Amino acid sequence: MSALEMLAGLRRVGGLALDLVLPARCLACGGEVDRQGQLCAPCWRAIRFLAPPCCACCGFPFAYDEGGGARCAACLARPPSFARARAAFVYDDASRGLVLAFKHADRTHAAPAFAPWLARAGADLLAEAELLAPVPLHRWRLLARRYNQAALLSAALARLGGLPHRADLLQRRRWTPSQGRMSRTERRRNVAGAFRVRPRHCDMVAGRRVLLVDDVLTTGATVEACARALLRSGARAVDVLTLARVVRPMAGH
Question: How confident is the model at residue 37 (pLDDT cuts 50, 70, 90)?
């Protein structure tokens, strides 16, 4: 038996032991499920998982297949700095509690469960990725929250795919106010120039295709600012993979 097989066996035994002590709970509603890290059937059905057809650039879902390489109106009008963005599911009333509990309520154990969802949604991106990195938090926000949810997702995804991962690749060099109530334009201004590649990692970025990981894609302002910082430091291209994304009507997209 290989070391990896032994480790997998120990993890299975550990999971069974945990289930005996603490009943497995649904990640969304807290109801009992068969195994840790699952959703119950009603919560699973309520989540709107994303799949093609979609915008070839930002991943905005299309009602019907518009052909390979089709882009949404927003990407045609203002092409983003990142090459492609994909998300596992829609951020809406059904998924909001799941995301916010992971982000703010210490549900850090959910990250390994989310990794396969991310891997399915971003299979094409992962196939070309040469380096994974999370969107960073400012040090004061990290101190208050105690963990960066994007870093937990990127680390779990990197382990699953066996890809290089650098949690501190990017630095949020100035504090920015919460963007929850900001417009698209306000968000862009809020994060303009807020990120940089840490100088000691510039050689790691140069010439590589970087996959940037975050929890929610709203307007894309934050990942756009991060992508620009990576490209300025010599990245060959930047893709974006998020757990969830806001889906507005096309006119407001």
Answer: confident
What would the mean pLDDT of 23-47 be, rounded to a whole number? 91
Q: What range does the domain containing 27 cover?
A: 1-43
Supply the pLDDT for residue 189. 67
- When pLDDT is cut at 50, 70 and 90, the band that residue 197 belongs to is very high
Contact between 37 and 27 under an 8 Å Cβ cutoff? The reply is yes
Distance separating alpha carbons of residues 116 and 99, to the nearest angstrom: 16
CA 190 to chain centre: 20
Across 181-203, b (16+ Cβ under 10 Å) vs e yields ebeeeebbebbeebbbbbeebee
pLDDT at 173: 81
Q: Which pTM value belongs to this model?
A: 0.86
Give how many domains the chain has, as a whole number.
2
39 and 52 within one domain: no
Same domain, 105 and 8: no
Taking the CB of residue 176, how many other CB atoms lie within 10 A of it?
18
Say whether both 3 and 57 belong to one domain: no
The CB-based long-range contact list for 28-33 (8 Å cut-off, 24+ gap) reads 28/95, 28/97, 28/98, 28/101
Q: Token pair for residue 188?
A: 């862009």
